[in-house]
Write a structure and sequence with these properties.
With 104 residues, the chain is mainly alpha-helical. The protein has a domain of 49 residues. The protein is 74% helix and 0% strand. Helix 1 packs antiparallel against helix 2.
């Protein structure tokens, strides 16, 4: 089950992506509206391309960072599981304190 308390990285990654998308849409809209208002929107095509390129690079950086963090978290969890199974296998079963009865 998904837990907001355990997945803080995922929450902040999603939040930063939402902020990045909102900022890109607003900036692109303002540049495009200014260009249309002046009657020469092609003048703003290079700044719009720069904004979209920065959005793409920042978005990919955020996503790849999240994938890397997730891989590290998954590796730590797998290592903890291996250590716990080794510890439980090396310890005798303390719950079964009754001696085994021979079968007839």
């Amino acid at each position: 089950m998904f837990s907001f308390k355990k997945d803080k990285t995922g929450f902040f990654t999603a939040l930063s992506l939402i902020i990045l998308v909102a900022a890109t849409v607003i900036t692109t809209g303002i540049l495009l509206a200014q260009g249309i208002k002046e009657g020469n929107w092609e003048y703003y095509s290079i700044p719009i391309k720069i904004v979209l390129a920065v959005f793409w690079l920042a978005g990919m950086t955020i996503v790849l960072t999240r994938i890397g963090v997730f891989a590290v978290q998954r590796g730590k969890k797998k290592l903890e599981e291996l250590q716990s199974t080794e510890n439980s296998a090396s310890q005798p079963d303390s719950q079964n304190t009754e001696p085994e009865q021979p079968k007839s």
